[in-house]
Amino acid sequence: MKVLVIGGTGHIGSYLVPRLLLRGYEVQVLARNPRSYYTEAGTSMLWNEVEWIVADRRAEENNGTWQKRMSEVDADVVIDLIAFTPEQNRIIVESIKDRVSHFIHCGTIWSYGPSSRVPYKEYYPRKPITEYGKMKAKIEAELMEKYKNEGFPATVIHPGHISGKKWLPIDPQGTRNGVGIYRSLAHGDVVYLPDNGLTTLHHVHADDAAQVFELAILHRKTAI
Fold first, then answer.
1. pTM of the model
2. Closest-CA residue to 8 (of 40, 59, 54, 44)
3. Are the beta carbons of 17 and 29 closer than 8 angstroms?
4. Which fold has domain 2-160+204-223?
5. Which of 15, 24, 31, 172 has fewest C-beta within 10 Å?
6. What is the per-residue pLDDT across 3-24, written as a single tens digit (0 to 9) for each?
7. Distance CA 97, CA 151 (A)
8. Are 221 and 155 in contact (CB under 8 A)?
9. Counting beta carbons within 10 angstroms of the beta carbon of residue 121, is it exposed (0 to 12), middle (13 to 18) or buried (19 or more)?
10. What is the dihedral angle through the alpha carbons of 78, 128, 9, 24, rounded to the nearest 10 degrees?
């Protein structure tokens, strides 16, 4: 199986690409620079197996060549980690819709908006308040409509606040203290949370997020 990862050198991609290679997939990575943001011990040599497609997505979208590039995609699965607007998503979907078996879009937890209850389930209403969240929610809605009406094989994954190497997490109180709140929890101390605990911010390690994308490919019927 051949997998194209668009934006595969960032925080999620740096973990996802080695995972896919270890699965035995042929992996193409489209990025501006042909190197990962960082590598973990034991995975650096795997990047030599990547088929690199060096391109600047934003520049090609602006000059009108991006759609042509996408129409020439030769992959069974396409993972888009860096689409931020509905128009960006529409271009790629229209270009590949008859040529791939699975399309996976990286959404965001910000598409949900403020929580009215906790825990907030994945199927609860989307009420985003930021422009970023609104655009991502629109992308998700359009992809789900595309699946419903045309059977387009789309999956949307919504990571939380991504953390990892070189990217410290914001803790559930919205600070970068990093360890204080977890130390208090470990000691059984009282921890005060903002807004009655409805606006806690939960981080996810980039490798855990990458594993979700990997599992979506492995369990396609469940993921779509």
1. 0.89
2. 54
3. yes
4. Rossmann fold (3.40.50)
5. 24
6. 999 999 999 999 999 999 999 9
7. 10
8. no
9. exposed
10. -40
